[in-house]
Amino acid sequence: MPTSEALGPPALRRNWLQYLPYLALVLLIAAIAALVGLTRQYDTDEQKSALISDVLWMEQNLRFQLDRNEAQLQQLGAELFAGGRLAPQTEAQLNHLLRQERGMERILWLDPAGRILGAMPPRIEAQPEAEPRVRKPSENAFDLARGLGRPVYSPAYPGADGGARFEVHVPAWSDDALLGVVVGVYSMSDLVVRELPWWFSERYRVAVLDPDGREIAAKSKVAPLAVHLSYSIPFDPPGYGLTLSITAYKGDTRWVPVLLGASILFLGLVIVWSVLQLRRQLARRQRAETELLRESAYRKAMEDSLLTGLRARDLEGRLTYVNSAFCRMTGYSADELVGHTPPLPYWLPDHTERRQELLHRLEDTGSTPEGVELRFRRKNGEMLDVMLFESPLIDADGRHTGWMGSVLDITEQKRARELALQQEERLQATSRLVTMGEMASTLAHELNQPLAAIASYNSGCINRLQAAEIDRTELMDIHAKLGRQARRAGEIIRRVHDFVRRAEPRREPLDLNVVIRDAVGLVEADARKRGMRLVTELATRLPTVTADAVMIEQIIVNLLRNAMDAMRDTPAAQRQVHIATRVEGRQVVVRVSDRGSGIDTETRARLFEPFFTTKTEGMGMGLNICRSIAELHQGRLGFEANPDGGTIFILSIPVEPA
Amino acid sequence: MNPACTHIIDDDEAIRDALQWLFKTRGVACQVWPGGEDFLAAWDAAWRGCIVLDIRMAGMSGLECFDALLARGCELPVIFITGHGDVPMAVEALKKGAFHFIEKPFNDHDLVDLVQKAMTHDAERQRAAADRETLEARLATLTAREHEVMELILEGKYNKVIADQLSISMRTVEAHRSRIFEKMEVRSAVELAQMLTTLRG
Fold it and tell me: B176, B188, B132: which is closest to B150 by C-alpha?
């Protein structure tokens, strides 16, 4: 499928792109972490090397101090063993040596045999016997120094006050004879404490450890130690397994890198969070977009499925939108229509003005809810009747941007309407024809009667004439009858003629009483034969009406016949048709009452319907025609129940004005 | 017995009068009635001849009158006079047993001929009815045994077979046979069979 192919790569790219920021972020954080780590590492190394160089410096310093002291002691040796009282400058030198910062506590000078010749400070207050004992550990050093002729350090030993001490034995020579040994007693702690500058002890804890790892002297303050930053070097001289252990104090926490790291972490988290937020936002947006897409597809489908044409135009009349139904209606494609300016291709030339007028009207009224009937021309030239409903197009800012019109194709409806009208007319014509046919049929039957009689009389006459004997009077009589029947036929023909002429009623001022008398005369014979009585009750001085005498007579005859038919089963004594005329307001009213069976409800409703009849031989047109005739004269024909039983038919004709 | 007569029933006086005159000139006896009601009121079962009935009449229609006559057992042949377009009604009438119908306007001679034919038909019917009466009277004179023997003779059996079947002697059968022939006024068994066939249809 082409769609999926087209969709594939961008989707892939999008996926890939989607994860790129995460990847970059992770890499960035890793890089920053590595950087921080490296910086830290570098820092530590720096610290370490600083420590080492400091330690080396200290060791150097100590050694230098010890060497200087050694050298001075050596220098002093000759003077000390000179004998006699100590020269003042020698004493001054001794005192100088014994200053505290030099770390030396006491200086002794011994003869080669090891006897103490003197001491500084003098050892009067000290116990004489204690000294050698105390000095015992250093006897080896004394011997070694005497033997070697070089300064030798003694191992450390605890002093009287508990502090660790060690000695340096410096042999003093005069030319090639050993004069004695000058011994300098160092207090370990003094040496360590006094010898170190303040900045060093500020930064490091310095301890001296004996070979067993016991701390024998330390310079420290109350502060936590950075265990990982410590360095040990052998303390030589004096040697003998002593170790100088230097441990850095934990310096102030270095806040900058911590803060930096923390802020990097924090910012990293913020970035992650914001990317997530962004992503959520994006997802939401995408969802909304999908939704929108679906919605618009749905709408499109809806618009396309509509049978109603839709078209929008801007205020200049340029088409901005048409739906497919509209395209189907007009036969133009959407491309041909959209953007088109008036006059539009489907307009009829003579409709342009009308449209302009419509447009003005639309601008005045706002919309055309009742619709406007128009005619369009399809692309193929066919005409199309449409109903147009327009309403204003309002954009999101509430501005009026154009008009939206829905267009209904009413061609079929219109055609159907016209067809129905035609059919109606045809039906009326047919019904007229049926009426004529019915009339003609009745008249033909009536005409048959005299003609048949004439034929029979004639046949009889011929029979008689064929025979020899002729009775003149008999034949005369028959011929008189024959002539009467011929006249009767003529009369019927005249009625046919009148009926045909009926299409246009010949109106003339008419006295209804006269018409009624004629009608009664017509049916009287029949009535007598059927044992019916016709009673007239005619108003005197009846105003004239404008009517067609023949037509009115037809109504009356019809009503009289119906009345008599209705009384077929009525007892002979009651077989009476009552005909009355009266003036009621501006109407002349004729009432024809019978004493028959009356009219039941079902019949009542359909009485005037064409082709409705209760008689076996009727066509059901009589009363229908009567009513039509009455209405032709602006009159009415109705009926009501007779209070004495039976029915009263009421014909009212308006009185001639003037 | 009544003489044969044509009864004309029509509500049009001129037609009645003209037909009466026509029949008179052809020597056909006729009587006219202005409506079915009048005719029915006067009707007598003993009347002979035929009826000419207008199908379309004011008051009682021709068909109604015909139905009433049938109901009363009238056997006179009925000829309907119909107007144009009344043929379906006439056909209905024929189904009910009307003799014929003639459509207006008709040839008068045709009508008279038709009436004469109807009258002849009626006369024949009368004669047949009379014959049947005679035959039934003769049959009534036979004894039960003679009836039995006659049925066997009609089946075409020989005297011997009849004697065996009835367990009587041949002579007795022959005596019955001659008596039956005598009473039925026939000369042979064939004649007897023919006579009874017409009676039994």
Answer: B176
pLDDT at A589 over 90: yes
Q: CB within 8 A of B103, min separation 6: which ones?
A: B81, B82, B83, B84, B86, B87, B90
Integer angstrom CA distances of residue A385 from A303, A329, A346, B26:
21, 10, 12, 79
Task: Report whether A405 contacts A312 (CB < 8 A).
Answer: yes
Q: Is A219 helix (H, G, I), strand (E, B) or coil?
A: strand
Question: DSSP strand E in A175-214: where?
Answer: 177-187, 204-209
Instruction: Identify the CA nearest to A351 among candidates A392, A310, A324, A383.
Output: A383
Q: What is the ipTM of this complex?
A: 0.71
Average per-residue pLDDT in chain A? 79
pLDDT at A377: 84
Q: Does the beta-carbon distance from B17 to A453 stay under 8 Å? A: yes
CB-CB neighbors (< 8 A) of A529 in chain B: 11, 34-35, 58-59
pLDDT in tens, B96-153: 889 998 887 788 888 899 999 999 998 888 888 888 888 888 888 888 888 888 888 8
Q: Which helix (H) or strand (E) holds A201?
A: helix A198-203
Regarding pTM above 0.90, the answer is: no
Q: How many CB pairs under 8 A join A and B?
A: 75
Alpha helices in chain B (DSSP H): 13-25, 36-42, 62-71, 87-95, 108-140, 144-154, 159-166, 170-184, 189-200
Contact B21 A530 (CB under 8 A): no
CB burial readout B113-134, b (16+ within 10 A) else e: ebbbebbeebeeeeeeeeeeee
